[in-house]
Queue: 3 jobs
Job 1
Amino acid sequence: AIKDPRVMAENGLRDKVLSLDSMNPWVKRVEYAVRGPVLVRAVELEEELRQGVKKPFTEVIKANIGDAHAMASAPSPSCCQVHQGPGLDPGLGEQGLRVRSEGHRQSCGGGSPGLGEQGLRVRTQVTPGPCPLCAAPAHPSLSPQTMLKLLVSGEGQSRTGVMIPIPQYPLYSAGIAELNAVQVNYYLDEEHCWALDVGELRRALRQARGHCQPRVLCIINPGNPTGTTGAGNGTGAFVLQGAPAPIQTHVYAEGVRVPYSFKERSFEMAHYSQSPSLHLSPPRCGLRGGYMEVVNLDPAVQQQLSKLVSVRLCPPVPGQVLLDVVMNPPKPGEPSYQSFIREKQAVLSDLAHKAQLTQEIFSQVPGIHCNPVQGAMYSFPRIQIPARAVQEAQVRGFAPDMFFCLQLLEETGICVVPGSGFGEREGTYHFRMTILPHVEKLRIVLKKLSQFYAKFIQEYS
Amino acid sequence: AIKDPRVMAENGLRDKVLSLDSMNPWVKRVEYAVRGPVLVRAVELEEELRQGVKKPFTEVIKANIGDAHAMASAPSPSCCQVHQGPGLDPGLGEQGLRVRSEGHRQSCGGGSPGLGEQGLRVRTQVTPGPCPLCAAPAHPSLSPQTMLKLLVSGEGQSRTGVMIPIPQYPLYSAGIAELNAVQVNYYLDEEHCWALDVGELRRALRQARGHCQPRVLCIINPGNPTGTTGAGNGTGAFVLQGAPAPIQTHVYAEGVRVPYSFKERSFEMAHYSQSPSLHLSPPRCGLRGGYMEVVNLDPAVQQQLSKLVSVRLCPPVPGQVLLDVVMNPPKPGEPSYQSFIREKQAVLSDLAHKAQLTQEIFSQVPGIHCNPVQGAMYSFPRIQIPARAVQEAQVRGFAPDMFFCLQLLEETGICVVPGSGFGEREGTYHFRMTILPHVEKLRIVLKKLSQFYAKFIQEYS
């Protein structure tokens, strides 16, 4: 029966205004495993520990995301903001940063056009060209979604298809679901260190053309969750041969072990092929600075992009200041140069050591396969799960690796993310774990996890 | 002719991948005047001044947005971040804030569930209830759009209608356009200090029912751009009588002159009527902290909202720390209490003085009508524009008040936002101007603007 709200109101009744049935159906399809059930349970367990509930562990270790500051594996800008009027307190901070901050204060001067500070935009101008958005500071978590918004159109078979790697970071699949675009999977090659294979790209493109219009190729490099940096040979050729564009990359400033950036390469290709190409930087932990860089975009579309970005607020000022330092690190002779180099080398060599340690320890465990960790801050080991455990998972309504991760959490307090949240080849199982904990803690986590895995295998064999 | 991309590729051709024709049509419909052509021109003029081009003014005054820090009318957290390792430098900041910062450091501890710091969420829990999202820190510029995403569904006559005030802040109309929802205008009553009139709400609702399904009522309070705080009588009754919900409010923590908040009232109504209701706080300038509070939301939809929020990153840590201070200001006896009260009173009395000054000076100018500025940081005067100027604007393809604002900028360097960007009754013209400049500068701006207006009237009469 149709309920007339006016009649209901007269009778003192109200229909439920917003329910699962009446809400936006595309939002319901969004999935985001990085902050899914395992983390929810981890937070509950922390609360139980606080209340004195007895557990087989004394601490929950959140290895699910790569927050370098929370893990205290990188020098962190304090979360203390200094409260003061105009002019900087001369006792604060390093000289180099103070000089820049003063510059920022002067370039702020009221009313940014929503694209971030003018001064900063000039300083981060890394790609020459007419594009006013090049290297504009951007809310990093918004950038992929903003680009997708521009690109999604059509209905039925002409609906925009978006090619994403499997495994992928679920920000992409969530964005695609929210916009009701068509997700087109291409599989990374786990046997070759998660390389991007051009034959596989062609296969995915060919098959997708039957039911959508593929227009976007997303490349995540260094890989998240895979932690690798190689782009694979032949990608350039693929991009030139009538494949979808723009390329959407997701690049960290520094690899952990392999100093390789896909960014330069994608721009070379884009300049050559005349495809629009976009480079997105990741968020800077806790301060939310980031930027996007575009080349070859139609100027009229560029205007639309500027408009869309400016409807949102520009990133927080401290994040923009940070980004300036990231894009223009101290040069030899500048006040902070020595400490910058010292810290940077310490961080990178620490990460390289932890990456090595992770691969070594996991490789000793029968049933675990762990590729080298080259970039990002994650390992993404493949685990065999016995048939009986798969059945048990099905009975409980979980993906097999979700089941494994929940069991791991309950027994060890270690919180990692199931591979199914990122996508994986049918019948393979993985988890993503950050390598960021202090090296001694990391060693303990890796050992506990390996021991638990062996026990799990035994229990379900 | 249909272009086959494979054939084109074989011939070495590429279709333009992304053009105005092939992009998302809904994005093209988005408009956002606050950062529109007037500001673009203002930035150009600044550059021309820097290059030594002679102008009838020496400085561009951006009175288009209300950035209290850029205008230096409020004590500002410095844009300098203090770089340090674990542990706080004891020489930094006020004792009260340092104590809190230490608490935040402890409650951060790795892996927030994307809804912001757990500790902070507990501390900002202002509304009792089972809702885990109550007072969750949120990206303030994302919150209205996130709520709209949940509520938009249906096609044709069942497409969700969203009631917004006219004039409105264009974040709402932009969000509606992007989601292809139906914008339903209700007009605020300028003759009664921009009051919200329940008869007008009923009219708008009745008419909208013919072509969409109105499900959302947005209330912006204190008004932006109108700068007023009164909600009008009868709103409560309207909400109870089968009108759309949730109520979406946009509330600043403190009014300028009238200490009235619509928030408490809307929650009272929502609790009574069982409608979901949402309260959004505005962004904190430069630090991007904010929160959303919901009541009466279906728990299943609540979960969907949590998921949608957690796909995005939580707000920057400094913004969350700031929010803690905003929600839990220093209490008598605490280290920072005295300075907090002193600063707060100074800021509020300064704003009240400027609000008064603005109304006084504009009221002396024939052709300008300026309501009292009660809240927010804006005045929104109505201006008469002579018929000849309206014609001239039409010839040049501008809305009449856009034409006025561009002329004002060229001759005086003062940058304000045309009323047409916020919506206004047919045949009326306005502009929005922040009242935040230092009082002596504000006096000069108001006088220059009034003089220019008198000259403009004379020129086109």
Job 2
Amino acid sequence: MAPPGEGRDAALLPEFPRGPLDTYRARASFSWKELALFAEGEDMLRFKKTIYSALENDPLFARSPGAHLSLEKYRELNFLRCKRIFEYDFLSVGGMFENPLKVSTLTQCLGMYDWSLAAKYLLHTLVFGSAVFSSGSERHFAYIQKIFSMEIFGCFALTELSHGSNAKAIRTTAHYNPATEEFIIHSPDFEAAKFWIGNMGKTATHAVVFAQLYVPGGQCHGLHAFIIQIRDPKTLLPMPGVMVGDIGKKLGLNGLDNGFAVFHKVRVPRQSLLNRMGDITPEGTYVSPFKDARQRLGASLGSLSWGRVAIMGMAVANLKLAVSIAVRFSATRRQFGPTEDEEIPVLEYQTQQWRLLPYLAAAYALDHFSKSLFLDLVEFQRGLAAGDRSARQAELGREIHALASAGKSLASWTAQQGIQECREACGGHGYLAVNRLGVLRDDNDPNSTYEGDNNVLLQQTSNYLLGLLACRVQDGACFRSPLKSVDFLDSYPSILDQRFEVSSVADCLDSAAPRCFPPGGLGEIHRKSRARAVPTSSVPPACPMPSSHHSPICQLCVTENSLKPQPCLCLAFASLCVW
Amino acid sequence: MAPPGEGRDAALLPEFPRGPLDTYRARASFSWKELALFAEGEDMLRFKKTIYSALENDPLFARSPGAHLSLEKYRELNFLRCKRIFEYDFLSVGGMFENPLKVSTLTQCLGMYDWSLAAKYLLHTLVFGSAVFSSGSERHFAYIQKIFSMEIFGCFALTELSHGSNAKAIRTTAHYNPATEEFIIHSPDFEAAKFWIGNMGKTATHAVVFAQLYVPGGQCHGLHAFIIQIRDPKTLLPMPGVMVGDIGKKLGLNGLDNGFAVFHKVRVPRQSLLNRMGDITPEGTYVSPFKDARQRLGASLGSLSWGRVAIMGMAVANLKLAVSIAVRFSATRRQFGPTEDEEIPVLEYQTQQWRLLPYLAAAYALDHFSKSLFLDLVEFQRGLAAGDRSARQAELGREIHALASAGKSLASWTAQQGIQECREACGGHGYLAVNRLGVLRDDNDPNSTYEGDNNVLLQQTSNYLLGLLACRVQDGACFRSPLKSVDFLDSYPSILDQRFEVSSVADCLDSAAPRCFPPGGLGEIHRKSRARAVPTSSVPPACPMPSSHHSPICQLCVTENSLKPQPCLCLAFASLCVW
């Protein structure tokens, strides 16, 4: 391979345009091109470039910064853009199978442009499309072609007005009538209206609808998915018995039409049942490959776990955007300085670094985590498809579920807090809409809620860990898991005993030192450093607070290398300044 | 006084309309009417009722929930509403002096309706008006009458595109020309454009403009304020040499027209100088009651400290609104339950209580703090006006500055985090725009930035505290301040030695117990409670984590009284679940 910056790489990774960031870029201790190639790989970089170039050159994707689109106009534009993405055909079905990571890369590229677009595209193809593909059988595969040609437009209708987290308690009913070989789909009241359904508000013609399946005689077989036409594809008028509409403005993602639907005794053919998990004979007998309803529900909702891993990637993309905006601004914004005439970039201030750089690091760490977990999930799904019923496969499923539940919460909250910090670190300019931090915050926000509320999901991970703990306590088993994510717990007592051992203030600034505290707190470092390492003339005043009240980064303690010593924040507001 | 709920109180505090919250309200252990009278006082409750009744009955203030106003239309409406507030004349200048707390009450009432309205009103009357009144002299008082009749409409133009925090470095110039007895107001380049100025975008006719004052010969006397006409009050067309416009959409407060202005050698009469702090003779000699420029700047920017105290009240109002929305929703939203058929309100879950109730408590605490600090500031200003030059007056000024700096940061961040938690605790419904949590978050957001970035302001408080500490170390002085806010520091070693000492799980749930931890952490409580207090049958499983890793509220440790025991969150995500 040619050295980065030469030959083919120069086209793939051209130099940045010259500007006020040049000074900082010239000071980098590494080649950003090598880092990009290392982190993404050439193939993926090319794929991204294809997508971005297409959008950059297409007037449909041109933006008018500062323009104030009406809700109607924005949604119309978003639908047209979604349609155009299908025309570009960046990724065929074959391509998805060949390199599944390209699916999440495409989502993130579209999201970096506009999350409403990414959501609209994703909900139609991957959520609606995958549900038809994975829950249906051959008789439903005709829909797949129509999905990719956008002859029909779909949505995934699980949530109801009164039931989100508790999906099992969904109240829409599907009563089978053998006389006509039809199901009667019905919403008992407005609280059972399907609600929040992305694409349903204005544009979906078809919906995968979850309902409680009742056989003749009145027995309920639990939640099942049906594919139901809700609008005429030509006129977009609702089908008879379907009351469908838009739920209105949201905090973000307003290019996406989230909707509601109330079904009034809507008759659909028997074949509407997506029958991979359970079917009904023409006469009305229920048949299923699964023995109990709980197992069946788990299998039919299985496609939801992809969502959590996808959300990790989305949150990371938001964090990357926000941190890039804030760090670049901080490198060019000058305020105060050593003299009245010379102001320095705010990035030079310890406080600004302390606010932003941990989020920059988090973006890299979470990016790697989300990609590797995505590939683990691909491996798991391939095992499922191949009929792997080994103990390892089952254990892998549990571990991925636990990692995706915690990882989605961690990534979405880190992005939420990171974007907020970036907004504030850019001061007033961060509050101008044109600088995008507001849109990022608004569009990232539902990542904490959908596909499982973060607080609820964390309990899934806790359950998993407590289960492992119970095995250890009862059977003396070691902490072991297929992806080795829990193995370190075997040595947690010794890990927790580790202490931060440095002998000088300079060591404190060394990122290679583990970030724990000595038994005596940072005060101990002071004492050591005063005794040994720091020349007397530059000894900072000893931090007066007891070590238990130090914030992780005590400004007074580590002023040695700073351009502008700042007072010890931990004195007054230890609880506010802990990152 | 008649018992609450009878006689005149029934009109002042009518019963709530009957509804799904009745059950919880009936269970209250106190009278909400008594609490309201205690917290606000009858006079203030009547004042609020007057304001709210007027707005409720005036069609100009009617809202269309879900309507999507264009930026132009919203700003137009906001201006008309602002004008109407003057017509209602809720509070005369005399009324302000008589009961200054009514000023912040009026601001908060308007803000609870719409912060864009409160900001527009406040910027014109209190910020622009007060600057003219406090920095000007008798020759400027003719403006005051025009301000209250809205013949002119004003803004306060300090910040420039490239200078916010570092106000001393403002670069707009005012050169005095004795030949014409005029100042030449000039912006050297676009970075010196006045920027972010509320009301300047579309509606202000006059601005208090801060500029560096130069006398003939070229000596600079530092920042001074000038009152300058920027638009024709009839046509709203800009005055010659003034390039003025709107800075565009923001994350929130979009009813307010924030603007910019570039001055190109604009000639204004000598009398435009607001000359309380310094004046110029017709011949061009500078005269000032202050000896050095630093002291003069401090005095001319003195009116800014009101802003910080006002922001505390605004943030508290936002927190009150958000917590009310979230707690009411949680009391009516049912999800999961002890059986499949019976779902319980989400407010019954420990996690939901743990997420919301501390913010409810914070709203009460900060409400009291912001009001009492406001009254302290009134006392301080009265001392200033009366010419009090005592040591106590000076010390009071320093203490109020420190409290307002930290209090503004604490209140705005607590509100920011509280609103976010409320948004998430309401799940998807919290993400619907009509439920208002998004607007609250967006409108509260700049409270962390304007009138001093929170991180910068905290250093003001740190400086104050470190100053006191230096006195103690050098002179053995006690921690003492006029408002006694620092006196507790004298006993901080013993305070920090206090330990949480309880002997049973039930004691952990007692809010009267101090919220510290025993030397052994919550694990210690477990061991004690297992040994003594809890019947063996209901002993929860011992929390397996070392005590140093417990979160403040460990779910596993305090499940005894919960409806639905939940796994120990601290095991997996101690760092995420600490409040």
Job 3
Amino acid sequence: MTDAQAAFAKPSPKQMADAIRVLAMDGVEKAKSGHPGMPMGMADVATVLYSKFLKFDASRPDWADRDRFILSAGHGSMLIYSLLHLTGYKDATREQLENFRQWGAKTAGHPEYGHMTGIETTTGPLGQGIANSVGFALAERHLAARFGSDLVDHRTWVIAGDGCLMEGVSQEAIALAGRLKLNKLCVMWDDNEITIDGKVSLSDNTDQLARFKASGWAVKAIDGHDHKQIQKALAWATKQSKPTLIACKTKIGKGAATMEGSHKTHGAALGATEIAATRQALHWSFDPFDLPEGIQKAWAKVGKQGAKARKGWEARLLNHAQRDDFTRAMAGDLPTGAFEALDAKLKELVSSQPALATRQSSGEALETVFNAIPELIGGSADLTGSNNTFVKNTQILDAPDYAGRYVNWGVREHGMASAMNGMALHGGVIPYAGTFMVFSDYSRPAIRLAALMGVRVVHVLTHDSIGLGEDGPTHQPVEHLAALRAIPNLMVFRPADTVEALECWQVALQHKKTPSGMCLSRQKTPAVRLTDAGENLSRKGAYELKAANGEAKVTLFGTGTEVALALKAAETLEAEGVPTRVVSVPCFELFEQQPKAYQDAVIGRGTVRVAVEAAIKQGWERFIGEDGGFVGLTGFGASAPAEVLYREFGITAEAVVEAAKARL
Amino acid sequence: MTDAQAAFAKPSPKQMADAIRVLAMDGVEKAKSGHPGMPMGMADVATVLYSKFLKFDASRPDWADRDRFILSAGHGSMLIYSLLHLTGYKDATREQLENFRQWGAKTAGHPEYGHMTGIETTTGPLGQGIANSVGFALAERHLAARFGSDLVDHRTWVIAGDGCLMEGVSQEAIALAGRLKLNKLCVMWDDNEITIDGKVSLSDNTDQLARFKASGWAVKAIDGHDHKQIQKALAWATKQSKPTLIACKTKIGKGAATMEGSHKTHGAALGATEIAATRQALHWSFDPFDLPEGIQKAWAKVGKQGAKARKGWEARLLNHAQRDDFTRAMAGDLPTGAFEALDAKLKELVSSQPALATRQSSGEALETVFNAIPELIGGSADLTGSNNTFVKNTQILDAPDYAGRYVNWGVREHGMASAMNGMALHGGVIPYAGTFMVFSDYSRPAIRLAALMGVRVVHVLTHDSIGLGEDGPTHQPVEHLAALRAIPNLMVFRPADTVEALECWQVALQHKKTPSGMCLSRQKTPAVRLTDAGENLSRKGAYELKAANGEAKVTLFGTGTEVALALKAAETLEAEGVPTRVVSVPCFELFEQQPKAYQDAVIGRGTVRVAVEAAIKQGWERFIGEDGGFVGLTGFGASAPAEVLYREFGITAEAVVEAAKARL
């Protein structure tokens, strides 16, 4: 052993933290891009957390009862990559660190869920991690109530930065966590007083401790470089009956020879000179990415210290009465017979289907699956009655027993959507929740992340058009169908009646890696699916609902409440001797996944094509071509009763007929 | 005078408030839709505010130095309609109240800016009003610094509900207001403990007073039905050196005979029986919308009591040295010569234009106009250096003197965008501010309202594609161009080089009633406009940048950094003997407004059409038809250097050539 190695033979906690500092510095330097300041600043806190508190076993990143660590300040991704590497996660290799931010590497600029094991959620857009964590912590409490603390008893630890706390979504998250008394949630705030533009005080002077306290948190401030204080604070956190905030006063870029404390360490490589000087100051004489043996061993030991607990847990699981159900739920598989009632209802409906608002149809779909799929957790952003998200007799999910299955999210669309992501990522639950469709704009950043991560959450978006009526243009989505359809890997459903609503719900729940938006009407609409197709037609995204009498001259496309208008228009055209098909399009995204031959057959090129949807045209050219007709909107709505709006904006069967005739 | 009339001959403040209650109840009843609970609950506070504190003159709703009243809880729109009617605003007629929520009426379900005078901003989406108000109050402070308190010295009063305070954007707003010491901002919180789903405590137990205090506000709690307490509290608010929160404990639906305090009064008509009983309880024996003379007179007097102050102000304006500048600025007109430097720069550029990132080009555009247009107020959500929004030597807009012209918004995209709306609505300033384009998702609800209201704000959205590089998919917009283009009345610009950037900025600033998004690259791009067109070509939305050599066989479309790729592809095609045009498309929205003949000429039907944009295809069919080629993305990006991403995702000149050839 060389002298250099000997100095690390039995590394101090400070030296173990320095390993993170050096790796972070090296990774960013090699990539010539990244954020070294935060990993260096929070290395001490992370070291104490991982070595003394975090329940995990690096060899089993999928251990269901592990503690969850969430790096809300995702730009500090080298912190988590370093930790996963040091503790021995299999795919956190040295090569991955060396390829930080490069094509094909698992070490993306911000931590990406699904790229490297040990990354619990994708973070980077500020505030999302802290809001996710509420979902993680809530899922834990619920599953503990369902399966017992023998199987479920873990904590959620979050590192958040000033940016996370400035984002509005953090307020929604902390208010929720406080209200729900999520005492196993601990946020370690990297209180370094620095943001990109300079000092935090340039734009903020909030007393964060007071703010969290006002929302029902237990709070504490410490020196984030003093390992004893950190240890004491984390121990304190585990004993509170409320969620905990620990303000960790740190220096950004801690350890950097001359740049420590400067916002210049935030978002750029330190440069060769500074790195050399820093190595010297840390007595770290090893090449980039090289680690002294003593450090390697000490950290590897940390990675293994949870093995015993994990094995004990596995033994408990093996003999647990609910073992199979727990394993199935955590795997995200649906119970056998999940759709028995739904299928029965479908059969029943095609013989007699009443006119309902599609939000009611969605409510009926939920009635058929809610008891059959105990993982379903409902909720609404304070619009329960309007969203039809509440299945009767459901217990509210709330402290102290957490066994309930319906969350009162409050007027917090963004926090709700972000927490839903956390719930789905935790596993064992399938969250769905409602708001008005227009407010999908509020939750959009979290919906995007659901799509990027590929998690199963269902957004129930009611009042899906000018059919909302009197509440007026602020509440009427007109561009939201297009805007949601624009998000890759998001299934945007707009069912036309109860049969389609049931089908769409089935598809949504069957897709384990795809979030859905269920777009639903406020107003009643007649049933359009009156015969038994023997299969789930909505699964194809679009299908011929009504064939033409004879060789089709016209194809009419519609979604949701406008399918009925298309059918009525087809009736008129047929009566005038124009053979007309009607295609219902419940989901653009799924249609794109069909074989080309099917797509061509459904689209019916060569026929006159007209689409009707109470929204803007964008995206419909895919179906109607450049010359097709479109009956919809070109601007915002207005305040008036729904039927008046449809008439005044010219979204009528007559207009559809006219658009077709003009092209015949 | 009848006995019934006599009882109101000299109405008490309580009786004046009852007039609001009855009108709100009647308006909602007639519409059979609306929200009576909040207007009834806050009638007392509103009565004291309007009769004792609000500086206004109903006959001159455009008086520049009026106090601003913002109903953040916009669903209580009958409160403001009643107040405007009672105080004598010309267009707040009885007929308008009777046509509440009907087609063509100015009394929309939620207050709509531009429909009825006296409505300062569109509210309804919760949290927006309170965030707007920060912009109103900041604009006031700035203009007072610029023009003196002789001309600018007014307050911003806000009524906000529980929903507003639960929304995350409210936290961004209150933190900003506290930091900026906006002491002339007063929020009256309707603390009625009720939301739609029931008691506030179902989803929230935040100590709001402590929360506001933590962000630097002065706070006070009162009985919101006790006129003396209200008066004392509002007087107190006018004397603070911080923004003020007054928690007004109220009963929702106050005055309703049996439903007072129930969430059932929130969002539905009370019904004939309850209304009759309530009339009796209030000793109000008049027909719907009928008002006793005494009430009419007393309220009309309130509407006129600001006339003297207004006249005094007009006299001061008449003799003010800065009269013309003030009047011009408040009218939203640009100074003479606003674009002299910009025009000069344009001429200079076409002879020698360097390769720049378009965010740098945008920065150069700002350099040419910032000093020429003193109304411009810049800012960034903590990405100043990245957004190129800061013009050198600009003073920061901050307490205590507020004369600066650059706002450190902090990591608060949503609050920033909403406050910008408030600034623009206040008048006298033209706000622009930056963030990464992907975070337009965070500010989207406010951008939508800017478009709906028609206000001039410019969102500088940098890092507009995978060209952002290593930060990865969380930070790379791929669907955002489509999603922003979907918003009606929003100009989404994506300039290709410095010439286009200058042109787009000119167009954005010249549109008084249209918000803009300026989508700008992180990475450098070669100049494409190398000759002097003698006009602002970007104004047309799309134009032929390069003609074909001979009869065009191919048309290539591109935007932003991809225009250079289209040009390169055209070169290859031309070299191979394929006459190829290139069309630059800096703004879809403006192109749609051109004459059809121009549109047809630019689109070039009959040629093979291919578009290239580092984003999803949605919306491009408008240009390329059903069979056109599209070189872009179908999903999310990845983390790697920009040039690697362009290559790996196949967004190259070669791919464009190939797409064209495949169709020839």
